[in-house]
């Protein structure tokens, strides 16, 4: 099932972000995910490698979709899953997070999938415990498995990301998805264009390996892939954002704009969609959309990640 | 375990309501449930048919009891269970429901057990996705597995429903349980009498295959089965309802009324009971009560339903 | 795996409290837990004895830690786990509790792990149902598995509790942990000293097999084990408690106090810790602390309890 011919040896027992990974490492995760994707099509969608292992979904922010995806991925690998949702936790107390995690670890948990409001939380945690840590989103920093499933989906359609032009559209400054996307896509050879109003661009955008455009209409004609970020309504109303209507007029992916795009443009969205806001329904459900494929591929990618970090931990334990 | 001698072939990959089922189909579900009931008495209460399948409990309304019953039924068939409770979801947005379900489906979920506040939600969903849909209660429309466990329980005691007189007592107009009961019981040959104050009768009661009575004392003497609906306190206080005390005086199943009933009257209640309101404790816990048997039988019936819809889906996939 | 040579036969299908157990029974649980502890170190952390059994975590009070520990213990024994958290339940209605439990039992649940705000709730429940009942904390009464993991941890370090001097420090009067500790520790041969302000001592402390001290500094020098109870902030502010600062000055386990303690003092805490309140961080994380070992041992102890009560139920069912 796993491409064992690949000579590469995975060594990380944590997945904290994509910024620190090499192209070879990224490709190894994607290759491993390919092996796992077939399980989804078998009549018994189970593989044994994590039997007896325990994965905890430690979510300090709500995210039903990501939580369920990780849970199903763990379950298909025959791991047991523990849900630990701490809605009202005081996010600022790093100490509480670490004490919570150490307790879970003392109960024999093997992997912590962490969603946390503070950037760097997953890294902090990885320094304090022996269990594997998988970052499921930390503040405005990274959301590595989302970006992995994005590049997996693109690679599946185009064979490779080399030379592709990819637009990421929306509130870039507050998006960990955008950040992980930038690292994964550029390392794999794509050219990334950030699109959005100036107020929603990261302050240090010049340090990123990207170009920036404020004009959706100019960009739409030349890109191979477009990733429409979700508008976070809770951030509206400040002075970063005009009205939704105005935002949609300039940056929404409409049927009209699609008419000027390449015919094989790949349309992506991390979900959940605000239909009629950042994307029109006809486009979200249209032929160019791979939005539901992204969700499906998320399962294979998360299986690969859970499998690889546990393998690395087992190898470290054996002193290899 | 399953009565394979039964020549009938189940073809529905959704269970949306009982109104559209034939007597033969209803009996086939009950026969299948009988086969599964024995699993509950084995030392290892597991059967393998849904191993590797995923059942999601997608509950937009609270219902711990029904949710746990479906979860246990799925688990006994070796399926994995995902809980997805969306308390504060905007029930009116059908689109949100469908997007949520499509995402779950993209994650490889095989069956969606849906509880939703809007009548017709399960049917709407079944038209939009490929996964199996089981209606676990939709608005004031139907609650098919509750009615199936009711008729299963009666059949177990009497062998058949043919010719039985069955009273359903309480707030009929707002009860999906009553509605599914009416279809199941009359199709299986019983005569149904609706009992309650005129304000709580459905407006189009003349279109239903039932008779109506406003007089509990007259009905109690002649029926073989009585199904006491739960009083929904949240509906009290409007002009539909007098006080609880007054309601209880006219429609409660009391020890006094039981004294005038047939000695082998079967007393049912969908639970949870309001002791001392619609039913007195002595009656709920008495010899005629089958209330806890209903709960037990619910497991077998839900196993049968989950099994059959998945079989139908597998057969459709094979092009049979 | 289980020490079968032990001639003792466990007969209780409920674990309600430690007050009623004999020394022999307590030791049998600990011996059984030892057998299960090894499972935690195996690559596949699973044992089959409860396969097909269902354990429900019926928690009327929040306790993520205890709930997860029981869930993992059940899961390692291959049981299925159902979560039933009823936050806003009216604790005073014993009837509601019993109806809830009877319904769960009717669904074929084998063991109910009950956390409830009312002292005696577990015992009340055990009289009303056939399923096994394990008390996971009832009001101010008992928390037997917490005390079992405490004595298990001490026994592991010292071989036996005979003759050990053990201080329990803090709000004794509201602590079910303290109460279960007192029974387990004294039955196993230890001498228990309760330490805290007079306002936080139980009113009938003279009836308990303990001595009392109001002076932490006197006690710290002579004890072998110290168990620091968690300060319940929600109880502060009444007239039982001075300020936290004052409490900490008199009763906190500080580095300074540790310097005057025996060098091999065992430092315990039931968790979660209020760092800097009842215990300083350096002490909680220091060499004398066994706090995380307690958490680990909790898993083995709860596996033993779940295993033994189910065995007793099976034996009773067979008429042995």
UniProtKB/TrEMBL annotation, chains A, B, C:
It comes from the Bacteria. It is an enzyme of class 2 (transferase). Pathway: Pyrimidine metabolism; UMP biosynthesis via de novo pathway; (S)-dihydroorotate from bicarbonate: step 2/3. The keyword Transferase applies. It catalyses: carbamoyl phosphate + L-aspartate = N-carbamoyl-L-aspartate + phosphate + H(+). Its EC number is 2.1.3.2. GO terms for molecular function: amino acid binding; aspartate carbamoyltransferase activity. GO terms for biological process: 'de novo' pyrimidine nucleobase biosynthetic process; 'de novo' UMP biosynthetic process; amino acid metabolic process. Keywords: Pyrimidine biosynthesis, Transferase. HAMAP family: Asp_carb_tr. Belongs to the aspartate/ornithine carbamoyltransferase superfamily. ATCase family. Catalyzes the condensation of carbamoyl phosphate and aspartate to form carbamoyl aspartate and inorganic phosphate, the committed step in the de novo pyrimidine nucleotide biosynthesis pathway. Heterododecamer (2C3:3R2) of six catalytic PyrB chains organized as two trimers (C3), and six regulatory PyrI chains organized as three dimers (R2). This is Aspartate carbamoyltransferase. It comes from Anaerohalosphaera lusitana.
């Amino acid at each position: 099932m796993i491409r064992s011919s690949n000579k590469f040896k995975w060594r990380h027992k944590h997945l904290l972000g994509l910024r620190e990974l090499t192209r070879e490492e990224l490709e190894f995760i994607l290759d491993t995910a390919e092996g796992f994707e077939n399980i989804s099509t078998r009549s018994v969608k189970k593989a044994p490698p994590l039997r007896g292992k325990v994965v905890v979904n430690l979510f300090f922010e709500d995210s039903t979709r990501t939580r369920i995806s990780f849970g199903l991925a763990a379950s298909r690998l025959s791991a047991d899953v523990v849900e630990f949702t701490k809605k009202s936790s005081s996010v600022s107390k790093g100490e509480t997070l670490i004490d919570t995690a150490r307790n879970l670890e003392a109960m024999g948990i093997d992997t912590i999938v962490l969603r946390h409001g503070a950037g760097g939380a997953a890294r902090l945690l990885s320094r304090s415990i022996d269990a594997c840590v998988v970052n499921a989103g930390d503040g405005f920093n990274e959301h590595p498995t989302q970006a992995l499933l994005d590049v997996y989906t693109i690679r599946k359609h185009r064979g490779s990301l080399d030379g592709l032009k990819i637009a990421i559209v929306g509130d870039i400054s507050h998006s960990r998805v955008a950040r992980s996307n930038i690292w994964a896509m550029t390392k794999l050879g794509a050219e990334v264009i950030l699109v959005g109003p100036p107020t929603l661009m990261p302050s240090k955008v010049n340090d990123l390996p990207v170009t920036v455009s404020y004009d959706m209409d100019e960009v739409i004609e030349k890109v191979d892939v477009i990733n429409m970020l979700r508008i976070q309504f809770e951030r509206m109303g400040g002075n970063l954002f005009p009205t939704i209507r105005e935002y949609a007029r300039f940056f929404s992916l409409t049927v009209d704009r699609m008419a000027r795009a390449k015919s094989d443009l790949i349309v992506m969205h991390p979900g959940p969609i605000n239909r009629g806001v950042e994307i029109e329904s006809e486009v979200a459900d249209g032929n160019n959309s791979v939005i539901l494929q992204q969700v499906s591929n998320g399962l294979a990618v998360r299986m690969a990640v859970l499998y690889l970090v546990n393998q690395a931990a087992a190898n470290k334990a054996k002193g290899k």
